[in-house]
From TrEMBL:
The keyword Thylakoid does not apply. SUPFAM superfamilies: Sigma2 domain of RNA polymerase sigma factors, Sigma3 and sigma4 domains of RNA polymerase sigma factors. It comes from Paenisporosarcina antarctica. The lineage of its organism: Bacteria, Bacillati, Bacillota, Bacilli, Bacillales. This is RNA polymerase sigma factor. GO terms for molecular function: DNA binding; sigma factor activity. Residues 9-75 form the RNA polymerase sigma-70 region domain.
Length: 181
């Protein structure tokens, strides 16, 4: 260790330790965090001579290191559940899959068919407006031009169509199980 770095360590090591302890609230983790901070300080020791406020510089390194560790543990905990050491299932099974399960796909298909039946049962004007907007993805302006009505009328028709669809879904005993609580 060179002399300026030794002076920095002697002067600020207690401050950094207490900051780490305050952030982690755990002595072991504070010591680990402090070690990571000092490794970074050694890595970037060439910048010390350009720093006006060493304490602020060290504080920034400490806070950034803590944030990085926290984000890393959050990311890791999202992908692997906290399980006992002896797992009955492979670890890869604990990683969430973005693909729909067969059950979810069937439920989605059932719901899609129900909604299509309800849309088909709407009055022609509402059915057409819903299809233009949600299926063909026309803008409100385009729908207004196609139907030769104002944008306000298109909005009203969409609102009324959604209200009617909701009422029809609630009234259908088979559809009720798919509705959010």
């Amino acid at each position: 260790m060179n002399e300026p770095l030794e002076k920095v360590y002697e002067e600020y090591q207690r401050y950094i330790y207490h900051l780490c302890l305050k952030l982690t609230r755990n002595q072991t983790e504070a010591e680990d965090l402090m070690q990571e901070v000092w490794v970074k300080v050694v890595r970037y020791q060439a910048y010390i001579k350009d720093v006006d406020h060493v304490k602020a510089w060290l504080t920034t390194i400490c806070l950034n290191t803590f944030r990085d560790r926290y984000r890393k543990t959050v990311r890791r905990s999202k992908h692997i559940l906290n399980q006992p050491e002896q797992l009955d299932v492979p670890v890869l099974d604990l990683i969430p899959s973005h693909a729909l399960s067969t059950e979810d796909m069937l439920e989605k298909d059932d719901l899609s068919q129900m909604v299509q039946q309800k849309i088909a049962a709407l009055d022609h004007i509402y059915k057409t407006t819903v299809l233009y907007f949600y299926v063909y993805q026309y803008s409100l302006v385009e729908i207004a031009a196609l139907m030769k009505v104002s944008i306000g009328t298109v909005k009203s028709r969409l609102f009324r169509a959604k209200q009617r669809l909701k009422e029809m879904m609630i009234a259908d005993t088979n559809a009720v199980e798919y509705l959010p609580a």
